[in-house]
Every structure is written in structure tokens, then in C-alpha cells.
Amino acid sequence: MIQWSEEYRLGLADIDEQHKNLFAIANKAYDLLKNELRTDKYDQIMEILDELRDYTVTHFSQEEEYMASIGYPKLLSHKVQHSDFIEKISNVDLNSVDANQEKYLFDLLDFFADWLVNHILKTDRMYVGG
């Protein structure tokens, strides 16, 4: 489980709320991974991926608008990180997901949790001067 804590707060209410929602999506993946009663998780994995992709597109757009509004000098490199993330979660080999759902879900959660925490604590913190 990946939990929101105050160390992730950037001090921008809208963006902090969006980050909390990203943590909630990660926790959906975690809960699904830990659910031993459900043997076929393919549809739920696809729902999580769709939600994650749709939400990050919206979130990244708003975050990039904010950075542009303050004249953030590293906006372009930040946008590249966002694009790379969306590309990774958009280019999923559906056959490999179906063939080994638990492993895929574990790998997705590991990637997403690591990316989310590091991106907020390091990359996002830079545009708020922290």
C-alpha cells in the first residue's frame, strides 16, 4: 500500500488533491493485487490502466499549465517525463497482461509507486521552490 503523507504536499491545493487521487489509483491496484478471491483480474487491470492514463493526462496538463503560468524554466524536460509515463502505461502488451496477471499487476504497481513518489518528491518539488 502506498499512502499519502504530508511530505508529498507541494502547497498547491489543486495539484495536491490530484496527487492524492493518483495515490488512490495506486491503492486500487494494490488492493486488486492482494485480492486472493479474484482469480481473473484482467478486466480490473484494464480499468485501472484506463483510469490511470485518463487521470494522468488531465493532471499532467493542469500541472504543465501551472508551470507555464509561472515561467518555470524546466517545463520542457518536465513535460518529457510526463509524456514518457503516459507512453509506458499506454503501450501495454495485453497478451502478457492476460498471461500473467499477478506479475503484471505487481510490476505496474512497483513502477507506478516508485515513479509517483520520486516524481513528486524530486521533480515536482522543483517547480514550487522546494
Automatic annotation (TrEMBL):
It comes from the Bacteria. The keyword Hydrolase does not apply. Keywords: Iron, Metal-binding, Oxygen transport, Transport. Residues 11-127 form the Hemerythrin-like domain. Fe cation 1 binds at residues 19, 59, 63, 124. Fe cation 2 binds at residues 63, 78, 82, 119, 124. Coiled coil: none annotated. Monomer. NCBIfam families: bact_hemeryth, hemeryth_dom. Belongs to the hemerythrin family. Oxygen-binding protein. May be involved in a storage mechanism or for delivery to oxygen-requiring enzymes. The oxygen-binding site contains two iron atoms. PANTHER family: BACTERIOHEMERYTHRIN. This is Bacteriohemerythrin. It comes from Anaeroselena agilis. The lineage of its organism: Bacteria, Bacillati, Bacillota, Negativicutes, Acetonemataceae.
